From TrEMBL:
InterPro entries the record matches: SET_dom_sf (IPR046341), SETD3_SETD6_MTase (IPR050600), SETD4_SET (IPR044429)
Coiled-coil intervals: none
CDD domains: SET_SETD4 (cd19177)
Domain of life: Eukaryota
GO molecular-function term, one example from the UniProt record: protein-lysine N-methyltransferase activity
Annotated protein name in UniProt: SET domain containing 4
Classification of source organism: Eukaryota, Metazoa, Chordata, Craniata, Vertebrata
Length: 262
């Protein structure tokens, strides 16, 4: 079902066009599927140019790129329609199917190796929330509600999964205000393209055009959904990272625990 005429998607396209995005028809193999200008990407540079900048830059120890992106998403969602990024946030899922959202009942039926990895993901998000309470409280002056009601575990989990499942890889120069590797970029509209394991594309940031570009290798059939490829991932990786599996996945493998081998 096409969503392109729904108001929220029309608003998203207007938002992107105002930032220099020019949507074009899909091209034959070897041609661009999409070219998204840097001005349309949501990165740590976006956050460090926002109202959050003074709070992030002055905080010690330095915060991770992932955390500051999570906090920005939560704060922008909290601001609602006054947010510059509202047209994008409005089309993001409100919930996800990756392990951070799994109930204990679901965890209990997973194979041992997958369950262990899934629990590690859930615990990582819980730790990210619990270990930054002091920083969250420092943001109270810019929030219209109590910080405990805005930067909740559920809100941070939503932001973390939004970034983990939807961001594209984009290496950024090291920033002395942040700690750790900065490799994330949220790419509105581009992140609506779904994964298919047998589709071939090349994807990267083009320094010449200052755009994130995806090129088709295998082409797209007319009147059919345009797919991209998130990587040569087996179904365990797809489930843990993105919250879905691919039927007939040619990259499927069977994980064998060393205890089972013995």
């Amino acid at each position: 079902v096409s969503l392109c005429h729904q108001q929220q998607y029309v608003r998203l396209m207007k938002f992107l066009h105002q930032r220099g995005f020019t949507s074009t028809q899909l091209q034959p193999p070897g041609q661009l599927i999409i070219s998204l200008p840097e001005s349309c990407l949501l990165t740590t540079s976006t956050v460090l140019s926002s109202y959050l900048a003074p709070y992030i830059k002055s905080w010690k120890p330095h915060l991770s790129p992932l955390l500051v992106l999570c906090v920005f998403l939560v704060c922008e969602r909290h601001r609602g329609e006054v947010s510059d990024w509202f047209p994008y946030i409005d089309v993001l899922p409100t919930t996800y199917t990756c392990p951070a959202y799994f109930t204990d009942a679901v965890m209990d039926v997973l194979p041992a190796v997958v369950r262990r990895r899934a629990l590690e993901q859930r615990e990582a998000v819980q730790e990210l929330h619990s270990s930054h309470q002091d920083f969250f409280r420092s943001l109270q002056p810019i929030l219209s509600q109590a910080v405990e009601e805005v930067l909740t575990y559920e809100a941070l989990r939503w932001a973390w999964c939004s970034i983990n499942t939807r961001s594209v890889f984009m290496s950024h120069p090291s920033n002395h205000f942040l700690s750790g590797q900065d490799i994330y970029a949220l790419a509105p509209f581009l992140d609506l393209l779904n994964h298919r394991p047998d589709v071939q594309v090349s994807a990267s940031f083009n320094d010449s055009t200052k755009s994130y570009e995806i090129q088709s290798v295998s082409g797209t059939l007319r009147y059919q959904q345009a797919f991209i490829n998130y990587g040569s991932h087996d179904n365990q990786r797809l489930l843990l990272e993105y919250g879905f599996v691919a039927p007939g996945n040619p990259h499927s493998v069977v994980y064998v625990d060393t205890g089972e081998v013995k």
